[in-house]
Design brief:
single chain, 223 residues, alpha/beta, Rossmann fold, five-stranded mixed beta barrel
Length: 223
């Protein structure tokens, strides 16, 4: 039995993950910041040695294509939507990247910015200018569910500037992303972070690029 707790925002994500993440606890959390915040309180009471947020995301730059895997070094709330200026550092980004690349997946790591509605068209460019590599609608608000445990985020690109959701190629991209998400779940079902001391999600401290303690950071965002 894996000691990993996986948070999956959407029903389709949870179904794909559950079909491949042998032994891990998979919890559907709901879409968007409000549902994520509510789910975080429940996750904090759910057994598990580490919390991994796993699901789809939107790519922001010209390199992004459906099926690419993004491992978060940190997650943050977009600074122009009225959210509290939160930034959470994620643990073991390098280890997760290495594990997935060993299985021949296309993987990058960087910051994921979290928003309250779908980011399409020019909105992607705005978020990219703020330093993020990808966008989702839940991860930073799920971080509280770690409740002192290690916290990580891995997302699979569903759409990108060259593969917008409403374009004809969207269906093929969605199929590709779904297949990759299932592969990621299988590869990470027994993931455990390094055993060295981890800081609790929610503590303040310097950003460490994803390899160190999980922590919550406050400051203005430029997006």
């Amino acid at each position: 039995m894996s000691d990993l707790l996986i948070a999956a925002p959407l029903s389709v994500e949870a179904a794909l993950i559950s079909s491949a993440a042998r032994g891990a606890r998979v919890r559907k959390t709901g879409m968007g910041p409000v549902r994520a915040g509510s789910a975080a309180r429940e996750l904090a009471q759910t057994p598990g040695g580490a919390l991994l947020v796993l699901g789809f995301c939107g790519g922001l730059d010209a390199e992004s294509v459906p099926g690419e895997v993004i491992v978060a070094e940190s997650v943050c709330a977009a600074g122009d939507e009225g959210h509290a200026p939160e930034r959470v550092a994620c643990v073991d980004a390098a280890g997760l990247v290495g594990r997935l690349r060993e299985r021949a997946m296309t993987v990058r790591s960087g910051e994921i910015v979290c928003v309250s509605k779908l980011a399409l068209g020019e909105r992607r460019a705005q978020l990219l200018a703020g330093g993020a590599l990808a966008v989702d609608m839940e991860s930073v608000w799920l971080a509280g569910g770690a409740a002192g445990r290690p916290f990580a985020v891995v997302r699979v690109v569903l759409d990108s500037p060259s593969h917008e959701l409403l374009r004809p190629r969207a269906a093929a991209g969605a199929v590709r992303a779904a297949r990759v998400l299932r592969r990621v779940a299988g590869a990470l079902h027994d993931w455990a972070p390094p055993s060295r001391a981890q800081g609790p999600a929610g503590s303040a401290g310097p950003r460490d690029g994803g390899a160190g303690d999980a922590g919550l950071y406050y400051g203005p965002r430029g997006v």
